[in-house]
Write a structure and sequence with these properties.
2 strands
Length: 56
Protein backbone atom coordinates (compact mmCIF):
# COMPACT_ATOMS: atom_id res chain seq x y z
CA UNK A 1 0.00 0.00 0.00
CA UNK A 2 1.29 3.45 -0.93
CA UNK A 3 1.79 5.79 2.03
CA UNK A 4 -0.61 8.74 2.32
CA UNK A 5 2.15 11.20 3.13
CA UNK A 6 5.60 11.76 1.71
CA UNK A 7 8.63 12.56 3.85
CA UNK A 8 11.34 14.61 2.17
CA UNK A 9 14.85 14.92 3.53
CA UNK A 10 16.83 18.13 3.41
CA UNK A 11 20.51 18.11 2.43
CA UNK A 12 21.35 19.12 6.01
CA UNK A 13 19.46 16.09 7.37
CA UNK A 14 21.20 13.77 4.92
CA UNK A 15 24.66 15.02 5.97
CA UNK A 16 23.95 14.66 9.68
CA UNK A 17 22.23 11.31 9.17
CA UNK A 18 25.27 9.85 7.40
CA UNK A 19 27.44 10.83 10.38
CA UNK A 20 25.36 8.70 12.77
CA UNK A 21 26.16 5.09 13.59
CA UNK A 22 24.20 2.35 11.82
CA UNK A 23 22.05 1.38 14.82
CA UNK A 24 20.87 4.97 15.28
CA UNK A 25 20.17 5.28 11.56
CA UNK A 26 17.99 2.16 11.66
CA UNK A 27 16.03 3.48 14.65
CA UNK A 28 15.47 6.83 12.94
CA UNK A 29 14.37 5.20 9.67
CA UNK A 30 11.90 3.05 11.59
CA UNK A 31 10.36 6.12 13.25
CA UNK A 32 10.25 7.97 9.93
CA UNK A 33 8.38 5.06 8.38
CA UNK A 34 5.82 5.21 11.20
CA UNK A 35 5.38 8.95 10.66
CA UNK A 36 5.00 8.45 6.93
CA UNK A 37 2.11 6.05 7.56
CA UNK A 38 0.50 8.25 10.23
CA UNK A 39 2.05 11.69 10.81
CA UNK A 40 -0.21 12.32 13.79
CA UNK A 41 1.68 9.82 15.98
CA UNK A 42 4.33 12.34 17.00
CA UNK A 43 4.10 15.51 19.02
CA UNK A 44 3.98 18.84 17.20
CA UNK A 45 6.76 21.39 17.61
CA UNK A 46 7.01 24.89 16.17
CA UNK A 47 10.40 26.38 15.38
CA UNK A 48 10.84 29.67 13.55
CA UNK A 49 7.50 29.40 11.77
CA UNK A 50 8.09 25.89 10.44
CA UNK A 51 6.13 23.00 11.87
CA UNK A 52 8.00 19.86 12.83
CA UNK A 53 6.56 16.58 14.00
CA UNK A 54 8.66 14.71 16.49
CA UNK A 55 8.12 10.99 16.96
CA UNK A 56 7.79 9.73 20.50
Amino acid sequence: MKPKFKIEFTPRFRRKFKALNKLTQIRILHEIKLLEDNPYLGSRCMESGVEYIRSE
